[in-house]
DNA sequence: CTGAAAGCGCTTACAG
DNA sequence: CTGAAAGCGCTTACAG
């Protein structure tokens, strides 16, 4: 493969001149410049990113995306939305995208990545926030952005919807349409920020409308269909089963509906609202709180790029994006 | 950040000795070696991958995954399955994973990647095969593996299911349960290998069982729900509508069922078999041809690793993986 | 068994 | 306006 040396020789100039011309820097005569460009094209020269990275900032132009290991905790639709958003903004800036996930072995993997120079910045979509890793990144003054509200004690840039508010609004709309027995099923363990925020919005809505908060109406789930079934069964076994449910994920909501069907009940027997929207929720006709994951990913990556472009430590920024409540056939007033 | 120079100084040895010790090479005294290792730990030294890559093979230890742009043509479940498979094998070998997709601007992006030294090998999951890119990769003797049967004229390693055979078997099982009017809806345009292979298996099954092949029973779709609806509407408008259908994707199959429902028909009105299996197909109760995407991804990456480890040109290998036919409630005998 | 030196492909002051 | 030189962080023959 051709190197810059070959290009210089082919064009009959010095290596430095070739570098300048190829990067559009310096003040070369138009003639020399085009002579060099032509030589590069003739040899189909592509710069070696490693050498370039080594000599500039010791980094390669790559953004790293950290997501949960596929198959756990989140819907593939969400994952792909994120990757597509990050990838789009990254590629606009001629950045590559590196994908990795937490492996349960602790955050050391992320730090390896950072120190090896393979990435210039990181975006995180990790439900359980690892404070220690973030602290270390802060100490290193390494650029990163969270696609979620940061955990207590971490000062950094982030982009997210207001989960508590979205949950509050959804609960209120159920109350307003006459429901008084409303259940909540979390998308993940309660120590996950997203679970806690949504739970507190739900609770707040009940209390501010003079409805009792009852723990037996709360189920702790994970992202899959089974956990939706379990939640529904738990709720149906109560003396006074809820008439409305807020599901933590599409698959959970589907599980709830399946559970209803298994008992020979209509899927509109209960009012069901799910977090996250997808073709799935649409085709099942499930009312959904649309979290604009793709937009969150894009905005996060934009913040990251801004931060990378600014070598000095700058103030973290945060963006709160609005969630949209989409009413479909599972939104039924109390009967 | 600490460099190898710092480590050498801290341990009181030469840079060469430090390099040897850190890489477990050369013959150093046990004492010197551990002295160096300890110094590295004390400084929390992480080697700079760029420098290392530059000096060894001009490449960084990264595998590139090329998939279609998210949101087009394929189910996120499939995409995540692939990423998870590639990532798992890659990380076993301490490789990073770089994600990219075709952008419709031609394959030059891939070649940039290759020549920049960012990846040591590529795995492709691309329905429409770009012969020119593959030829160039062959010329460069650059390691890559396809997660699909290669197109005509490309000689390379690949891993795939036998789509024609899977389609044949599914069609035969419909014939055996009494269907004579069987429709086929492709997952993509017909010039995609996967569409063509499945179509030819379907056609072959009909012909070898003395059933006529009728073009009005064939619909050309894409991966989404709408195309399933369209296909069903096309078929239902025929004088003799099919009694059984083979769908190209889960979403297509769901579209077919939705279309049935919209007309007030039971979803078991028709026998429906879908390609690809997912929680979706499971929860809808759609009979499915399970394509082990995750396994395909893993095996492909293993082949790639083998190829990378072997600097000399070696013979391409191919692996055909069996598809599994899973019968669910949409598999109904002819009425 | 260990050290000094060359070199991977590039960029960036610095001379001229 | 252009060239010679140093250097990014590492590894690998090659001396000793």
Topology:
Two copies of one chain form a homodimer.
Chain A: H1 4-11, H2 15-22, H3 30-42, H4 49-55, E1 62-67, H5 76-92, E2 96-101, H6 108-116, E3 121-124, H7 131-139, E4 144-146, E5 157-161, H8 163-176, E6 182-186, H9 193-208, E7 218-220, H10 225-236, E8 244-247, H11 250-262, E9 271-275, H12 279-284, E10 287-290, H13 293-309, E11 318-321, E12 324-326
Parallel strand pairs in A: 1-2, 1-3, 3-4, 4-5, 5-11, 6-7, 6-8, 8-9, 9-10
Antiparallel strand pairs in A: 10-12
The structure holds a DNA duplex (16 and 16 nucleotides).
Task: Describe what you observe in this structure.
- Chains A, B: Residues 2-56 form the HTH lacI-type domain.
- Chains A, B: This is LacI family transcriptional regulator.
- Chains A, B: It comes from Cohnella fermenti.
- Chains A, B: GO terms for molecular function: DNA-binding transcription factor activity; transcription cis-regulatory region binding.
- Chains A, B: It holds the Pfam family Peripla_BP_3.
- The structure is a homodimer of 335-residue chains.
- By secondary structure, chain A is α/β, with parallel strands linked by helices.
- Chain A has 3 domains: 4-47, 434 Repressor (Amino-terminal Domain) (Orthogonal Bundle), CATH 1.10.260.40; 62-162 and 293-322, Rossmann fold, CATH 3.40.50; 163-291, Response regulator (Rossmann fold), CATH 3.40.50.
- Helices cover 44% and strands 16% of the residues of chain A.
- Chain A has 13 helices and 12 strands.
- A 6-stranded parallel β-sheet of chain A has the order 2-1-3-4-5-11, covered by helices on one side. The first copy, chain A, has a 6-stranded mixed β-sheet with strand order 7-6-8-9-10-12, with helices on both faces.
- In chain A, helix 9 (193-208) links the parallel strand 6 and strand 7 (218-220).
- In chain A, helix 8 (163-176) runs parallel beside helix 9.
- Chain A starts with a helix and ends in a 9-residue tail after the last strand.
- The model of chain A has no long low-confidence stretch (mean pLDDT 91).
- The first copy, chain A, binds a DNA duplex (16 and 16 nucleotides) through helix 2 and helix 4.
